[in-house]
Design brief:
- This protein is of the alpha+beta class.
- The chain has a domain of about 120 residues.
- It is about 35% helix and about 15% strand.
- The strands form 3 sheets. The chain has a 3-stranded antiparallel β-sheet with strand order 4-5-6. The protein has a two-stranded antiparallel sheet with strand order 1-2. The chain has a two-stranded antiparallel sheet with strand order 3-7.
- Helix 3 crosses helix 4.
- About 20% of the residues are buried.
Amino acid sequence: MPQPKAGETPDNAQAAQWQTLLGDGRYWVGPSEMVAFAWSEPNKNTLNPFTGQFESGWRLVPPDKCLKNKSELGIPPRAIQSANWRVPSTVATGWFDGVLWLLQTETEQADKLETFAADAWRALAVYGNMDATLDFLQTRYSTDPDALRNHLQEVTQNLIDAKLVETLVAK
């Protein structure tokens, strides 16, 4: 990372570097406070000092509370009778190098999910329903439905144990 010029603070140097990389089309360059809306959580890009490239940051708002975060999981929408699963608000998500990463902020445990486990978590996060999740997974994996259900239950239990999904309590 370039060193600040004489008279520049490190924050000013970083803002100047970002401005150079991003161009003049941005209305804000620099750190910002966390803000989220029901329809969107702003992108929080960070500069990777090793590659010199910007990377998308972690998503902090659970998919059931933010339409943008839900749609970015790439699961087709579907009407659901009742949701009984959700992503806890203590889980941050990120896509880095084509891999789904989940950070459980209470335990500071980071988990990398790929293939079936990533698809299962994404579908549970979007649908919040085991049957809808199973239906989605059957479109992606050609295997015996009972074996698929058993594997999904095993993966779901691992996700529960890691506090990456939770069951909704009936009110």
